[in-house]
Every structure is written in C-alpha cells, then in structure tokens.
Input
Amino acid sequence: MSSPPFRSSPERMRRGDSAMRRGDSGSGSVLNRVPEDSESENVDWELEEELLLEEQGFYKGSYKRLVALYTLAPLTALLAFALLAVLPHVAYHRPKSHPSAYPYPAILPFPLPEILASVALYSLAHLLRNPIYTLSAVLVPFPLAATLISTTLHTVLSVVARLVTLALLLVRHHAAYAYPTWRDTAFRRVWWASLGWAAAEAVVSVHQGYAGLALYRDVLVPPSPPLTNPERTPLLPSRRAAPDPDAEIDQDLEELIALKAREELEDVFGLPLIRIPAFIPCLQRVNSPLLSIGLFLLLSASQFGARVRWGLVVLATATHLLLAVLHAPIVLPRVGVQGAAYVGAVVSLGIFFTGLGVWGGVS
Output
C-alpha cells in the first residue's frame, strides 16, 4: 500500500470519457507519443499510464502483494498482544499474600471470564454502531451533524459497555485494597478485560481490511516491464468471459456492487484503500490495545473513590471521543489517515501511562 502519486478519485467513472478524448487527440497525448529511450521518458509514461488507468477505475499493482503487505497488520497485533500479556507478570510482581478473591469456576479459570465478558460487550456495542448512525441520519438531515451525533452516542455507549464489563466481573467488590494499586489482583483482571476488548476490536478491523482489499481484486492491473513501443501496450485488463447471458448480468451486478463499495470506502478514508501505507494498519493495531488498557484502567479506578469517580470517567470519555471524531467518515478525509494514526499513537500512549499512573504503576 504505497503512497499514491495522485489523490484524484479512481472511482469517478464520469471522467473516463474525458480521459479517452484526451488520449485520442493532441500530439502530446501519451498514446500518440513515442517515448525516447531514456529513464525520464519511461517514468513519465508510467505515471501517465497509471493516471489513465485510475481515471477509468483501474489500478496498477498486484493483489497478492497487497494482501501480503496487509498481513503485517495481524502479525503486529499478535506481537503487541503477546508483549502486553506478559508485561504485568514481568513488570509488576504481585504479592503472594493476596490471592484472587473472585470465585472462578473450574471450567472458566483466570483470565477467561475477563476476556469473554469484554468480548461480549464489545460485540454488542459494535452491532449497535450502524443502527445508531441510521437513527441519527433520520433525525438530523445534515450529514456532518448526524455523523458527530452518532459518533458521540456510540462513544458513550462504548464507555458504558466497559463499565458494565467491570460491573459484571465484580472488580471492585473482590478487590483486596480500598484504593487502586497494581499490587491488587483487580489490576490484572482489569488488564485482561482490556486485552479481550482490544482483541475483539482487532479481529473486526483485520477482517474489514481484508474485505476491503478484496474489492480491488478485479481492478488491479499487474505492472508490466517498460516496452519500446508503449502504443501497443494494452492498458486495461481483459474482461472475464461469461458462459451465458444470465451469468454476464450477474457479473455486471457484482462489478457495480464492488464499485459502489469502493466509492464508499474512498469517501471514508479520503483515498483508495490500497494507497494507504502498509505501516498505518500496523500502527493502528498497536494503538488499539494501548488505548483499551488505558481506558479500562481509568474506568476501573473510578469505582474506588467517589471524589475522583466522575473526573476519571469524563477523562476516559473525552479521550475516546477525540479519537472517534478523528476517525469519523466526514472528518477523516480532511485530517488524513496518516495524521489520524499519528495522533492516535500519541493519545493512546498518553492514556496508557495515565491509567498506569492512576494505579501506581509508573512510580
């Protein structure tokens, strides 16, 4: 997923006619020009060829290579989870005199209840995302306002779901200390609940990434070596022959559905999905567990004292809302995918160490 040379929309098929007219007229057209045998001419030809392809809805690239690059994202997520899973055992040695008071059943030992509870509540919050946006769009006719309202409502719902997770696990009830401290068994229980939430989020995000890449399978043109006569180079890939008219109609419908889905993705990200640099999904997979741990630590610490309870809840909600607004469909194209990922990294690290500080883990 390399950076695009052009930010123009490849799915705007209405520009295809103008591109073809430009290719048929004028001595300066790339199709009517015989390039010189030089490196600069080859580069110019490749850029103009790529532009012509994108204006007609095609891209130069290899689907297998894109999938291989995106596979770095789930691998990064697995590595991040492995490191964060062993971090409490390495950095925070719990005293043996305070065993866990939570009555774990024999078939659900630690940390399975924490993981299952957080995964269940995340799944519920995720399933309600689209209904919340649909309801907001119906009640508010302005797209920007509807997006901001739905994002705010879903953020509040996510915070409430985290609080419900902690309540179901009886974290405060079975805590060994009257204040939040990493020496308490509740610290590790909250830690694993946050990892379960982040794991569910990672699975959903990785699945969406692969599904998005699959939309570009039929519009990718493998890069060809430079030829001495580019006028005879076929720019567009050959169409698959349908065995019968009904199959051809089905194929056309599938292509239209994929075209609409690609346009919707481009509206969300502000650029084609395959043009997002490969390290951005990897960075997002690291940001997610850090943010989840920080939010869970803040929300769980709010249950230990009434004096700072609402302050920690407001801090967690405001942080989550900031990142959610940055990734909203209308805001993200203006901010940029890279910019949102960098801001997310800074905020996630900040909230992670803030949560550790509340539990006395950075002293």
Notes: The first strand starts at residue 59 and ends at 60. The two ends are 41 Å apart (CA to CA). The longest helix spans residues 185-214. Residues 61-216+272-358 form one domain.
